[in-house]
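Workshop exercise sheet. Pairs work together: one partner reads the sequence aloud, the other fills in the structure field after running the prediction. Swap roles for the next sheet.
Pair: D.N. / O.F.
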Amino acid sequence: MGRKIQRYTRTIEVTKNGLDENLDSFVDDIRPNPLAAKQNTAHLIRRYRDILKLQKEIAKFRDEVVDPTQRCLAELHDIFPSIIGSYKLMFRLHFDVLEYRVINVRIVDTLKLSDYLLQLHDSSYGVQRQGLKMLEFANKESTACVGYCEDALDDPVVKSGPCIESEIRLLQIRFRLLAKSTQSKLSELRAEAQLEPQSADDSRLRASLDAVIDICRRLPTTHDGFLDTVHEFAKALGQEGSSDFRTVPNVKNDTVRKIEKSWGMHEVGFLTTCGESHLYSAKTFPEGCPDCGKSVTAMDDVYRQSSKYLFEKQFLAAMNAGDSKPTKATANNTTTSTNACETSASQEIIVQNAVITERSRAVTSEERVLTAVPTIKPGNVNEFGVANLCVDDCDNATKNISKEAAQKAGHEQSQVDNKEGSIKDLTNEEKFLIAMRGIGKK
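Structure field:
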């Protein structure tokens, strides 16, 4: 089926180019006289023989091959759900789009010939009547194709393939604009067989055009080529109905054409599916599903996501509210921060105790003697003026020093205990700040 898509895509392009190239030579063979009416009609039928054959071939392959294949896969999935997966095959819609393109080429060529025939001078008006019939036929077929596109858009599967959806919507708008232009042309000519006026639903067409614009923004890599067409259609919808069909924009996207040509290069053994259950070859399309396209985050969404953390006041208010009323989601974080604060406070207490111990051990014997000198009594001086230091006095001095050191250590220990008690009374935020200061000092 992928090779058929590639083949028909190329055939449509070749047929369109061939009709455009031999238009001048074709109209030269038309004779504007009443005796050549049958020859002119046969000449016109031969021109559309090939393109009608191509349209029938596409429709036949779609109805006899694509549709039964998709139905069989769906039935097999119902019978063997663990073996056959559930796929959203888009091949039916691909061949619908190909048929719409063929019809579009035929309508445009019909309008070109009709415009030429209406300008010829025929005394019997046979050629002019032929051109008028062709104009009416183009109007009816354009209106019918608008309904065909609407039926295709009603299919729920088309929503999963934005690439196909956007092209169907643009083709629908083009058919509607062609119908309006042909209706205006018929009104100018004041044809005898007046057609019923076509009620163009411009609001619906604009909504469809807005949907295509949204798809182009989400998928710029595959739909960038549609943007020019979208802008041209927007201008055409804003203008009054013109009778010149040449003012209707063409639907063109080189990226979509490349994807369709790549379908014919499928290699066996690399089938895979995307998130929408589309079936495709991972080797032929290494960048991802060709029907889904490559989505890109819009700039508005980027700004919206990045601005979540720019409101500092709301952030601080939420933090304070979280401290006063901790929720279940933040209970683990609160416990962790509390344990960290208590651990850092305990480390500070251990360090301070070690400093006090070192200070008490650092008192030398000389400092003890100097401390004991004021306690020597005046009568304890010998005849040489040297103090008589007895063992008892030294022991008393040592005891006094030890007592003073113990009192000092006890005082500092009580301060540390008070500090530890005050730390326990602190809030989580204050404990967190104390811990951070300790880390900064280290």
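Discussion prompt: The chain has 17 helices and two strands. What would you look at next?
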